[in-house]
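ENTRY TYPE: paired fold submission
RECORD: A
CONTENT: sequence, then structure tokens
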Amino acid sequence: NISSNKSKGGFSSESSLLSIIPWSVCAIQYLLVIFWMCLLLTVSFLLLDVIVTVL
């Protein structure tokens, strides 16, 4: 019983590490999405400025 408990503890620690990795990946993906949204917004504003100046 003791040996099985030890193996379970090892698996739980490994699973916690594995659970942290996807969370960081999701956070990076969210940051990338926010970055691209900001980039698209700035580009659209620049295009609007150019269109207004041309008109």
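RECORD: B
CONTENT: sequence, then structure tokens
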Amino acid sequence: MSNKPVEYLLLPLCTY
């Protein structure tokens, strides 16, 4: 599961 704030920070990094 992905219920971590860190995942949200990595998401925008992948979109870049």
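NOTES ON RECORD B: The CA atoms of residues 9 and 15 lie 11 Å apart. The chain has a mean pLDDT of 65.
STATUS: closed
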